[in-house]
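Tutorial handout. Part one gives the primary structure; part two gives the three-dimensional structure as tokens.
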Amino acid sequence: MKYKSLLLAFAVLTCLIAGGLNATASDIGSKAPEFSLKDVQGNTHNLADYKGKYVVLEWINFDCPFVVKHYSSKNMQNLQKHYADKGVIWLAVCSSAPGKQGHYPNNEVISKMKELGMNVKAYLVDEDGKVGKQYDARTTPHMYVINPDGILIYQGGIDDKKSTNANDIANSKNYVQAALDEAFAGNKVSQPSAQPYGCSVKYKD
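Part two.
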């Protein structure tokens, strides 16, 4: 049992270090990179399709303990639904390469989405990592908020509690929520970037 606990602790530390060392601010205030990706149902989604809407991009890896934290607690699903009801387009993006952690066949992803009760517009598949690298996505989760003009107004961690403990969520500051609420109120986003934390994105070698 102690050995398993040590392995988990090492994995978590490795993820945090990877996120911390590589974290860089994306171009806040500039146009978000255009992309075209297929979802797990085979439908194509272009960022341009959602011009005039707020868009949230959530980099995801079902096997990452930091992602598990936010889904096991329903925190992520509740955020997705709350903002989807306000017209926000929420897209999950998986840049895990085939054979890497977090990569699943489409049918298994669809089952997992139903099991978790995800409230996303689509789960996009980025196997070659092109879109992830365009956005400089470093961790899972790594969050981005794009305004109706296609301008990136937030990028970084989902909140300020860099842990895998779901009990920390209640006392955390949710940066994505803050950014969207401020933007909806017509205010400038007070914290447009924050260090992302989580597991490193499992890009193709």
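Part three, for discussion. The longest strand covers residues 89-94. Helices lie at 2-22, 65-72, 75-84, 106-116, 130-134, 175-184.
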